[in-house]
């Protein structure tokens, strides 16, 4: 049963239309260059339209993998597909694994989360719904649905394995970079609690992360997420166009935030404190 007729799950015509226009999302994401704040985290603003961080994060990240799972459970039946190749199932599992961590575990692992502006929350939901539909449609019916079709697209076990390796390398690197930021927050919360017990005035303290990949760059968690989805695209092959769009959309959405964050670090700590560190792309920027 369709939740939204022709769209959830998407008909082939609607999916092809979405897949075409989805590759132009970077033009929309580039509008971030025109504003001086990002509606969550260090550069956010006080607003009555902010949503509590954990609630906003979960509700804006969950729709992506729920959409993909729903599409996989309904679209093949509509298209007369009785079983999908193992490659489709593995790629779907990787998508879900990423978002189980990102959408569910991540907000509860965080010692604290900044409020998120309702506009950022709404745009994130739209992103997740469209991305889940694009990737899910390809995996469920509109990409290769037999081993012969995979072979016709130049499938090789070696390429798939390399893609999986890169994906998991990015996923693990992303997790440990997140964990380093979490440990800094935990330390700050312990410091604040100690000051409260002593009856002292508490001022928020910031520091430049120094462990792991933070020795070399300011935003390794962004970079490793790009690595992750690069591996995903490699595993699926050049014809996996929704994965390519996802990677590019992530890059163009996150890169302006990294640039803004890099300026924040420089203003907050001075150039000496971040000297020798790249902002987000090792060896480039």
Automatic annotation (TrEMBL):
Q: Which GO terms describe its cellular component?
A: membrane
Q: Which residues form the 3-oxo-5-alpha-steroid 4-dehydrogenase C-terminal domain?
A: 116-285
Which terms under GO biological process does the entry name? steroid metabolic process
InterPro entries in the cross-refs = 3-oxo-5-alpha-steroid_4-DH, 3-oxo-5_a-steroid_4-DH_C, SRD5A/TECR
Any one Gene Ontology molecular-function term assigned to this protein's record: 3-oxo-5-alpha-steroid 4-dehydrogenase activity
Q: Where is the signal peptide?
A: none
Spans through the membrane: 20-39, 51-70, 90-109, 118-142, 154-176
Keyword Zinc-finger listed? The answer is no
Tell me what topology the record assigns in the membrane.
Answer: Multi-pass membrane protein
Q: Report the family membership.
A: Belongs to the steroid 5-alpha reductase family.
What is the official name of this protein in its record? 3-oxo-5-alpha-steroid 4-dehydrogenase C-terminal domain-containing protein
Identify the species of origin.
Xylaria grammica
Q: What is the lineage of its organism?
A: Eukaryota, Fungi, Dikarya, Ascomycota, Pezizomycotina
């Amino acid at each position: 049963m369709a939740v939204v007729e022709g769209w959830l799950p998407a008909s082939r015509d609607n999916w092809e239309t979405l897949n075409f226009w989805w590759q132009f999302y970077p033009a929309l994401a580039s509008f971030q260059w025109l504003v001086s704040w990002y509606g969550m985290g260090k550069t956010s603003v006080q607003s009555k339209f902010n949503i509590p961080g954990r609630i906003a994060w979960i509700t804006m990240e969950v729709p992506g993998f729920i959409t993909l799972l729903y599409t996989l459970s309904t679209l093949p039946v509509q298209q007369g597909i009785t079983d999908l190749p193992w490659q489709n199932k593995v790629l779907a599992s990787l998508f879900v694994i990423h978002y189980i961590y990102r959408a569910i575990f991540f907000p509860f692992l965080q010692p604290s989360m900044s409020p998120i502006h309702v506009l950022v929350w709404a745009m994130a939901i739209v992103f997740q719904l469209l991305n889940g539909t694009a990737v899910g449609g390809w995996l469920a019916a509109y990409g290769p649905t037999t081993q012969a079709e995979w072979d016709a697209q130049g499938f090789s076990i070696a390429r798939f394995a390399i893609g999986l390796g890169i994906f998991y390398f990015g996923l693990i690197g992303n997790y440990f970079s997140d964990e380093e930021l979490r440990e800094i927050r935990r330390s700050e919360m312990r410091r604040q609690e100690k000051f409260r017990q002593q009856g002292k005035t508490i001022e928020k303290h910031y520091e430049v992360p120094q462990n792991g990949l933070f020795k070399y760059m300011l935003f390794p968690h962004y970079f490793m997420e790009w690595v992750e989805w690069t591996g995903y695209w490699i595993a699926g092959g050049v014809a996996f166009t929704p994965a390519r769009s996802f990677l590019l959309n992530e890059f163009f959405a996150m890169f302006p935030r990294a640039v803004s964050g890099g300026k924040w670090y420089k203003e907050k700590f001075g150039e000496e404190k971040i000297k020798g560190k790249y902002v987000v792309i090792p060896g480039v920027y």
